[in-house]
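Troubleshooting log. The previous run stalled partway through. Resubmitting the same two chains, unchanged.
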Amino acid sequence: MLQLFTEGFVLNALLVSVLMGLLLAYLGVHVVARGIVFVDLALGQISMLGVAVATYLESSPTAIAIVFTLVGAFVLSFIKVTDKRLKQEAIIGIVYAFTSALTVLLISKSAHGESDISEVLFGSLFTVTQSDIMWMAIVFAVIGIVHVVFRRRFFELTTKFEEHDVDDVGFFNAWNFLFYLSIGLAIVLAVRVGGVIPVFAFIVVPPVAAILLTRGRAAVIALALAVSVAGSTFGLYTSVQFDFPAGSSIVAVLGALFLVAAVVRGLRGSPALR
Amino acid sequence: MITRNYFLLIAVLLLVPSSANAQRLDVVTTLPDLAWIAEYLGGDHVDAFAIAAGYQDPHFVDPKPSYIVRLSRADVFILAGLDLESGWVPSLLNSARNDAILRGGPGYVDASANVRLLEVPTNVSREQGDIHAYGNPHYWLDPTNAKFIARNIADGLIRQLPGQVDAIEANLVRFNEELDGRIEDWQARMQPYQGRKIVAYHNTWPYLEAFLGIDIVDFLEPKPGIPPTPSQLAKIIDLVSRDGIGVIIITPYYRQNSAQLVARETGSAVLALASSVGAFREVDTYFDVFDYNIDRLIDAFQRNAP
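Second attempt completed without errors. Output:
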């Protein structure tokens, strides 16, 4: 089975997965710290709804998906629930279910609706084209550079959110907007190829696993990137070895890596999980 | 005198048996091909509605409430049979509560009676994938089976509209004549391409394959109903490159990514073919299905000469 790794389409899947996984895991460190994990799941689905709308209207999928995602990010980030009986999470959950249903409704009008839906959820890594990879590489490189160059600013903002010290983060804070713009773009490009669930898994699992195992921002970032690459490689290996679809194999492996991290943390006996 | 004849006339007219909708039979079918044939045979006396669209997968149709309403009013129900529609037809028929169109009723037409079947399995198990126990059900893709389909449909129409037996039989004769003429043409056109190898996405095509004389050597699905796996993709890429296979055929209701991947890696072409009337805008009649498919296959074969 390992000789399948010499096949072009398997190598392309590996390249795309690693590329995607690295940036998403890095952005995930911010996402987990800010506690907007479900917002990003909903954003992924909103982005696919944008693609479904564009396909239905027969216009450019990427442009419309970007518009949808940015509007979605804007709306989701400013939801303030004042009733004590409701948590923001409830609203995010509703948005996720609602956009998923709308996507299915639109897709049901197309000829190949059934197979489209599994691709929305878990992507189609083996059939990625050179053009897809090129665009992703370019945009992700730009996002990556912006985040590295301005890392102090972004982390300052994230720390404020982490410590609920957000009163002086204005409604139209430029850095916050830029942050959401970068996440939105990353998500839009990634879900087209990787699917909503694997993208979500790359954002959440590596940072969480890293947090369970280490302290200090730099160490967390490094470990998150490592877990992400491990997820991509072992996930694809599993897919090729056992003839499973790529996206769900990667998510399964990421889940397993999280469990390993949790067990290790539990064995070390520190109080974080309680 | 005039009054008596007048009353006699009225009495005769009142006594003429009317089916549920006077002179127009309400026909509901599963496939659009069956609806088209029903309207050909019944002419003005038939109003046919097909539940599945030509570009949809006939194995899986979402049972909408409007279909149940149509079925409850139908005089004739025509299905392809052989368990093609067993995933959704039984529950629709149950909900429709229309005895005339239940199995065994006068309005129930199983179009598959007497057709020549392919791939009838000797033993059946789930590990072979999603196979059909009575044989491959896509039999309407061999136009020589159409005379049996048309006979079955004509019988159903005649049962429910006995007054029109002559018109229906005359249309059947016309249908068979046109069919025979076109079959000759199609076979002549495909003569130079006998034995040409191609690859298909799903096992939709054995009847078309047999009729056209082409050879479908393998499928992108490792087993029927299972989406292409990495090892099957690698196997097909290898096969297509090695044997110089120029064409991969697929129906409009499957995503083309895997087929496009194989095409990119090997330089072959992906061809979406019609599996039913209405699969594409240009495919309006049963005969169009074959014209469309043959035109495109011949075009692809000429561009990919071995």
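Takeaways: Chain A has one domain: 2-273. The mean pLDDT of chain A is 88.
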